[in-house]
Design a protein that fits this description.
With 396 residues, the chain is α/β, with parallel strands linked by helices. Among the domains are: 2-43 and 64-72 and 192-244 and 309-388, NAD(P)-binding Rossmann-like Domain (Rossmann fold, 3-Layer(aba) Sandwich); 95-170, no CATH class. The protein contains 14 helices and 17 strands. The chain has helices at 11-24, 65-71, 99-106, 112-122, 132-157, 166-169, 195-202, 216-219, 234-237, 282-286, 313-327, 346-361, 363-372, 383-386; strands spanning 2-7, 28-31, 43-45, 51-53, 61-62, 77-79, 84-88, 91-95, 187-191, 208-211, 225-230, 247-257, 267-269, 278-281, 293-301, 308-309, 332-334. The strands form 4 sheets. Strands 8-7-13-14-15-12-16 form a 7-stranded mixed beta sheet. Helix 1 (11-24) packs parallel to helix 12, helix 4 (112-122) crosses helix 5 (132-157) and helix 12 (346-361) packs across helix 13 (363-372). The structure holds flavin-adenine dinucleotide and uridine-5'-diphosphate. Flavin-adenine dinucleotide binds at residues 7-13, 31-34, 39-41, 55-59, 215-216, 231-232, 250, 307, 336-338, 344-347, 349.
């Protein structure tokens, strides 16, 4: 008899498997319908011997010391600051839009102070920023919005930015300096030996059994367990009783080229001319040296594997109905990007999984553990704050 059946071996499922097994001595069966662990963060060496991310570029970044320290128990890190360029008007320029983007695009030599004035002049006043269009036009005006955001977003989501929550394009800042990093988080690093190796270490515990190529529906009636952690799409769990929640999908086209370097940046975005949104060259991310190089193109799609929840009001309303059902389902915990319908990054999923564990195991025990791995000042924005939530009613 297992204490937990965990559905999905991505960050949500694997972190919970590790915590329940190592932290609470629970017996865990972790299953995934895919033939590998790691969920969307899975990486592997391809036929040329180059480490690639099967489901598109995954770059780890977080402001949470607790999340970083937790994962550091399972991997060493390679410091890595991500940089992205956009192909616009025949030029390859920095995105997020910064001082150099404007100067290159318009053949200017503005200073930081002058570019601030430039943005003020072109920005369109928006009374209340509600949509992804508002976010951008209120900062950099319509022309830059159309060059960098409108078509990319329509392609990526199959929706106009005016139909998407502000949170989507708010992920990409605007800068008046020359900082061309994609993220400014305190911790930015890649697992030294890859994500999959980190997952192997997370799951290396005698209380954890892993079943791959296994949809949980094939085994839930056959294998006894006390509770379930479910990290797949929430609407699928409930047989779509309220209809399908939209999830955006992608098709990945992987290629290997017989040259050491393919493009001038780790990721190049193509907002306008191409059917794909971006091209990633993996060796930049991993630091691997190799005579050849591997890249991936991302083609957005409406159908296929669920990758992105689509943040907009009507979807939030539909999700709220599923959440109410989930909350009324005893002994099943819904965790992760698909099960809680949240456009979360990896670190946020780790934090969410640690929070869930904190609730299951009881607050005191987790707090004690968190403190043993921190310097005690508790000023991170993840684990230490989150574990103060106490919900004794679902204590295991
Ligand atoms: P997943 O990784 O999706 O894991 C869920 C697992 O459940 C899957 O493996 C699935 O096969 C399994 N499953 C579903 N249904 C069943 C079933 N019925 N039976 C058995 N198994 C089932 N985050 C970052 O922080 N940085 C990035 O750079 C970044 N880049 C991204 C790029 C792309 C293209 C995508 C799609 C996402 C990116 N993310 C990034 C987000 C990141 O992938 C997620 O935050 C994280 O992987 C979510 O983990 P999860 O465990 O919730 O879900
Ligand atoms: N975006 C855009 N142009 C860009 C980069 C991003 O329009 O060059 C918009 C687009 O809607 C995208 C969102 O901003 O989905 C968030 O971008 P991010 O790079 O964070 O997307 P992710 O890596 O999660 O796919």
């Amino acid at each position: 008899m297992f204490d937990y059946l965990i559905v999905g071996a991505g960050f949500a499922g694997s972190v919970l498997a590790e915590r329940l097994a190592a932290g609470s001595d629970k017996k865990v069966l972790l299953c995934d319908k895919r033939p590998h662990i790691g969920g969307n963060a899975y990486d592997h060496y391809n036929e040329a011997g180059i480490l690639v991310h099967k489901y598109g570029p995954h770059i780890f970044h977080t402001n949470s010391r607790e999340v970083f320290e937790y994962l550091s128990r399972f991997t060493e890190w390679r410091p890595y600051q991500h940089r992205v360029r956009a192909s616009v008007d025949g030029q390859i320029v920095p995105i997020p839009i910064n001082l150099d983007t404007i100067n290159s695009l318009y053949g200017l030599s503005l200073t930081s102070f002058e570019v601030e004035e430039f943005f003020k002049k072109v920005a369109e006043p928006v009374e209340r920023v509600k949509t992804s269009e508002d976010v951008v036009v209120s900062k950099v005006g319509r022309e830059l919005y159309e060059k960098f955001f409108r078509n990319y977003t329509r392609k990526q989501w199959g929706l106009d930015p005016s139909e998407l929550d502000a949170s989507v394009t708010s992920r990409v800042p605007t800068r008046t300096n020359r900082d061309d990093r994609y993220f400014t988080d305190t911790y930015q690093a890649m697992p030294q030996y890859g994500f999959t190796r980190m997952f192997e270490n997370l799951l290396d515990h005698p209380n954890i059994k892993v079943m791959l190529n296994c949809d949980y529906r094939e085994i839930e009636k056959e294998i006894p367990f006390a509770e379930m952690i479910y990290t797949g799409p929430v609407d699928a769990y409930f047989d779509y009783v309220y209809g399908q929640l939209p999830y955006r999908s992608l098709e990945f086209k992987h290629e290997t080229h017989d040259v050491p370097v393919y493009q001038s940046a780790p990721v190049v975005n193509y907002p306008n001319e191409q059917l794909y949104t971006r091209v990633t060259e993996f060796k930049y991310l991993t630091g691997q040296e190799h005579a050849k190089t591997s890249i991936v193109f991302e083609f957005p799609k409406a159908t296929g594997d669920a990758y992105y929840p689509v943040p907009r009001k009507e979807n939030a309303e539909l999700y709220a109905k599923y959440k109410a059902l989930a909350d009324r389902t005893p002994k099943v915990h819904f965790v992760g990007r698909l099960a809680t319908y949240k456009y979360y990054n990896m670190d946020q999923i780790v934090a969410q999984a640690l929070t869930t564990y904190g609730k299951i195991a009881g607050m005191k025990r987790v707090e004690a553990q968190a403190h043993s791995h921190s310097n005690g000042n508790g000023n991170g924005n993840g684990y230490s704050r989150i574990i103060r939530v106490s919900t004794p009613e679902i204590r295991a």
